[in-house]
Amino acid sequence: MSVAVDPESNDLIEVFKALGNPARLRIMRWLKDPEEHFGEYEPIADRLSVGVCVTHIQEKSGLAQSTVSSYMSTLERAGLVYPTRVGKWTHYRRDDERLAQVARAIGTDI
Q1: pTM of the full predicted structure?
Q2: Angle at CA 22, nearest 5°, toward 19 and 24?
């Protein structure tokens, strides 16, 4: 469950930090339309309801597994993605409600 974004608190700062990295921003864009961006990979679970497997994010990005894990943890701490375990794999999907809260905070408070 997401918490409303308070523009005076550190949660908005964490969102900006997370999205301030070009690779993390690119991953968030990919997760917006997982079928388009990850369609070439055989899904382990439903991409729309469960998310994209971290191994597919790693393959598409060309980054090391440890880097992708760190980036996904940063996005998760900022509340921008949901992790879901499927077997031994973690899948990620965007928290679009949280992103809408951030957009409203930017539009009304900044």
Answers
A1: 0.87
A2: 55
Which value, to the nearest 10 degrees, does the dihedral of the CA atoms of residues 66, 72, 77, 78 take?
A: 140
- For residues 91 and 81, what is the distance between their CA atoms, to the nearest angstrom? 10
Phi, psi of 20 (to 5 degrees): -75, -10
In one-letter notation, the amino acid at residue 67 is: T
Cα-flanking dihedrals φ and ψ of residue 3, to 5°? Answer: -110, 140
Regions of the chain short of the pLDDT cut 50:
1-3
* Residue linked to tokens 């550190």: 10
**Per DSSP, what are the bridge partners of residue 94?**
81
Structure tokens given for 64:
């090391």
| Dist CA 6 CA 3 (whole Å) | 9
Distance (Å, rounded) from C-alpha 71 to C-alpha 90?
13
Question: Distance (Å, rounded) from C-alpha 103 to C-alpha 70?
Answer: 24
